[in-house]
Amino acid sequence: MPSKESDAVTTPEDIDFRITPAQQALASCTGAVLTSVLVTPLDVVKIRLQSQQKHSQRCFLYCNGLMDHLCGCRPQDLQRQWYARPGHFTGTMDAFYKIAKTEGVTSLWSGLSPTLVLAIPATIIYFVAYEQFRVRLKQYYNSTKPKNISHMEQPFWIPLISGGTARIFSVSVVSPLELIRTKMQSQKLSYFEIKSALKMLIKQDGFKALWMGVIPTLCRDVPFSAIYWTNYETFKRILWSSNQPSFTKSFVSGGLAGMIAATFTTPFDVVKTHQQIRLGEKTIYEGKSKTMVGSSFETFQEIRRMHGVKGLFAGLLPRVIKVAPSCAIMISSFEYGKIFFNRR
């Protein structure tokens, strides 16, 4: 007599995507590297364009397509830093051309290597956790259905809960490491001295300080993940009419879902950016990571009071242009990786 679990696993989609967590990790790692390689030049150009306008800039956010990283601008080191190299650009395409021509094509990936130390593990944790949560919730939901149903259903709340929970897990694990990396910038420590940086941070600010600034990140990333995965699974179900995996359809589904999620969570991104910059300046330049920078709600109210509702959607178009291809590349690479390992 077949077991309940064997009855639950019946659809082609579930069979084709049933691989081990280790294989899921490899698939997400491949997608993370590919995403960062393709998306990073866009952010490098954006930072170079901004740096020629803001000469007093102390901190900036560097995005490699996977996660944001806070970087400090030390005046005494500007002549050696890629973001402070001289150049006059009239626009995005002009910056691409001049940077590649005068500094070499590899300059378009300046600053990428250090950020991957955290971005790749964070991405692996996030995608593997999502797959594990989704499959188990789907199995549990369908185990309560009559046995004569020949297919597994996936209601919208499964990817919604799985995406949000996976993001909480990923951010909670990686956030302390990102704060340590920021602290290391203030002390000019190398990655080989990370143990010293950890001890120094705990001694100075206490154990809870490891999660300083995690609330603004969760306020942005958890809704984003919940909205993204809910829409992605919906678009995938619509486009994959035959349940046959497709790189192109995954790419389109991921891009559309990314656009929707980025649009709805832009206010959270604006608030998070303001708080992260403030916390970064205090941590890097004042050595006070425990100093309060105001709650997310206070920052939200401040932005709305100074700039109106429009200020909460500042940078909407650039954010969508950056997030949509990142999501499309990452998810299509991840899905293809799962197909590859399953066929092996």
From TrEMBL:
Signal peptide: none annotated. Solcar repeats lie at residues 19-136, 154-238, 245-340. Gene3D superfamilies: Mitochondrial carrier domain. It is found in: Mitochondrion inner membrane. It comes from the Eukaryota. The chain crosses the membrane at residues 108-129. One of its GO terms (cellular component) is mitochondrial inner membrane. Its main location: mitochondrion. PROSITE patterns: PROKAR_LIPOPROTEIN (PS51257), SOLCAR (PS50920). Keywords: Membrane, Mitochondrion, Mitochondrion inner membrane, Repeat, Transmembrane, Transmembrane helix, Transport. It is a multi-pass membrane protein. Belongs to the mitochondrial carrier (TC 2.A.29) family. This is Solute carrier family 25 member 40.
